[in-house]
Amino acid sequence: MKIEIWSDVMCPFCYIGKKNFETALAQIPYKDKIQVFWKSYQLDADLSKTEPTEAKDYFEKRGYSLEQVEASKSRLNEMGEAYGISFNEGNIMINTGDAHRLIQFAQSKGLASEAEEGLFKAYFTENKNVADYETLAEIGSEIGLNKTETLEMLNSDAFVFEVASDVLDARNIGVTGVPFFVIDRKYALSGAQPVEYFVSALTQAYEKDHFDASANDGTACDVDGNNC
Length: 228
Description:
Blueprint: E1 2-7, H1 12-27, E2 35-40, E3 53-54, H2 55-61, H3 66-83, E4 92-93, H4 97-107, H5 112-125, H6 133-142, H7 147-154, H8 160-173, E5 180-183, E6 187-190, H9 195-209, H10 211-214
Parallel strand pairs: 1-2
Antiparallel strand pairs: 1-5, 3-4, 5-6
InterPro entries: DSBA-like_thioredoxin_dom (IPR001853), Thioredoxin-like_sf (IPR036249)
Domain DSBA-like thioredoxin: 3-202
Protein name: DsbA family oxidoreductase
């Protein structure tokens, strides 16, 4: 079963959604038969890559009052504690396009989930600039990517097309917010759902479309005559 997840590095609910999804996945007996692909999505592609904006200023310019911003922070802190996530003060708003290129590069090496986790932690807990190439290369190094190769990738146009294709794909299938989960291009789940919801949804989807075809308890032969 194939699961595609559209997510953005500076989306706190994507971080929570990732935690819940992975906790749920670990509880599913078919987890070894499920492939996960992380897809790029930018909440604000117009943000600068070189001039960070304080989150407070960013939201105030978009009509949110200081009280609303503070209330949102308080709510996120409470949610973060429940999921073992530290949402620290002082986040900056920055273009995440190059962070998504790092994720795409990591995905080509089988390390996309690790890259997502590293970037979420860097952005929300460590308040790092995830548009800075040295910072991105260091995050890559921490998850097992070669730092020199990562810097070379970032200083090229590698994976620009893949990021843009994911964004276009999201638009075509009607994604308007993240996190957004698509199962076998047939079922969709939106938002940071609870663990129990993910367990139920993923189990039902797998058993409906894959269980009968893949189950083999030794009482039947396959088309090649194996297991007879």
